[in-house]
């Protein structure tokens, strides 16, 4: 979303109306008010046709509504906040004139419960039992303080359904002010401007104990209440259960910008954390842009993703843990030239290092270790080092701790700017119990091309096969890659994997060149003509709604010029 630049005063005016100073420095103490009762004061507006701001009716029958200042809507902590959770259904409408919904506190949907009895008493057993938050296409939500974030608790749902021409954006007030200013006031890759999003469900997580198994369809648990990220005090929330068919709602054409700030318990939040979110949750066309921690992290559950973009994520673009068994179809990951850690960091079992061998095998036998499938992934990582990285240096795919993963029709590329700084910018690494999984065929890579100076890292499989030989024997290929290589036809006709403007589109498989000849890797598993996320011969699913990739939909410099991708 590109906002017009001349208007900065509207946000300042909105914040002054509620006694706040505006900008990222605002830090409002959490409210303990419950919005299920009468929280109104004399300053609460009466609902009129001239006030388009979101509203709800509390249990006292009173309408509570945001404050409108001719462009933006502002919501003080007395409207919603940590400890003042949203307990009824609410619609956040799109505003005219590129107006923004400004939240001066956190936005928590539904209550959290940490016992089975409390859930039963409240009638919360599945997604849809609690309140829902609906956000109209084209809406922008901005959070004032970097301690504020959004939680959708178990039983509650979020319906944020944008369109290609009217995406929904979650960001910070600082970002909005910067975009509206005559010249940017924050860096294009700024992070920690606000917390981020946490979505929570009743799905399976191996942080809990279960009877039965996935295979026999009799998996059951009790008192499964795992603290989610950010869980402390008023920010507390829990995830988990035995229902991988749960639904936490729907996200479509959603962009999450500049999150990752540290919240109450010390967690640095991800773009979106999915805590045991079920597979009936729809997530399609999702972008996480410039976040301090991970892009998306799945803590168990089985939520699926279609069309995911991670741009300038400073930690792991895709983080998998404690039993996630969903699918990602079509994903484009682009690191910063100087920052970012793994494209994929994938763990199978929670608290792995403290588990005994028999405990690990018991979890695997139940089928509740992480078992994801990733189809058509393009990763473009950089050779950033420990000296420039926020967390750890740029790297490719790491599988460990008993994960059974399958990756098909994908590319891992660290060739554009690989100076081989300290042998940390590898393409592929397989560790501990996942090495046995690879040997047994439970970890599978199919039709993958790797292009990194450092091909692999880590120990051999239990039978002595190296990680590289394992991958090659499975029908994958490692290109011979030199420092500062270019995987387009522009400069190196011996390695041609990408094309287009920008160079993010896969060359048709039949036309790819690897080490001067056609690829030796297997042809696409899907039967399509290409591997990776995008092809010029197909509809560009990133066009029209993403931020930072295409000209005209990017951050700008002080002179108003688009900031290009670093490898263009």
Give the integer mean of the pLDDT values. Answer: 90
Overall 3D shape: globular
Percentage of residues in strands: 25-35%
First-residue to last-residue Cα separation: 22 Å
Given as residue ranges, the uncertain stretches (5+ residues, pLDDT < 50) are 1-34, 36-47
Write down the Rg. 24 Å
Number of domains: 1
**Broad structural category:** mainly beta
The proportion of residues forming helix, as a percent range, comes to under 10%
Task: Give the number of helices.
Answer: 6
Instruction: Please provide the count of β strands.
Output: 34
Task: Please outline the helices and strands.
Blueprint (H helix, E strand, L loop, with lengths): L8 H9 L37 E3 L5 E3 L1 E2 L4 E3 L14 E3 L8 E3 L3 E3 L6 H7 L9 E4 L4 E4 L6 E3 L4 E5 L6 E5 H8 L16 E4 L25 E2 L10 E2 L9 E9 L14 E4 L6 E8 L6 E4 L5 E7 L6 E4 L5 E8 L7 E6 L9 H10 L6 E8 L14 E6 L5 E8 L12 E5 L2 H8 L3 E8 L2 E4 L9 H7 L3 E2 L16 E2 L1 E2 L5 E2 L6 E2 L54
Task: Write a brief structural summary.
The protein is mainly β and 568 residues long. The protein is built from six helices and 34 strands.
In words, what does this structure look like?
- This protein is mainly beta and 568 residues long.
- The chain has one domain.
- It is 9% helix and 26% strand.
- The protein is built from 6 helices and 34 strands.
- It has helices at 9-17, 116-122, 173-180, 357-366, 433-440, 467-473; strands spanning 55-57, 63-65, 67-68, 73-75, 90-92, 101-103, 107-109, 132-135, 140-143, 150-152, 157-161, 168-172, 197-200, 226-227, 238-239, 249-257, 272-275, 282-289, 296-299, 305-311, 318-321, 327-334, 342-347, 373-380, 395-400, 406-413, 426-430, 444-451, 454-457, 477-478, 495-496, 498-499, 505-506, 513-514.
- The strands form 6 sheets. The protein has a 16-stranded mixed β-sheet that branches.
- β1 and β2 (63-65) form a beta hairpin.
- It is globular and about 70 Å long.
- Mean pLDDT is 90; it is low at 1-34 and 36-47.
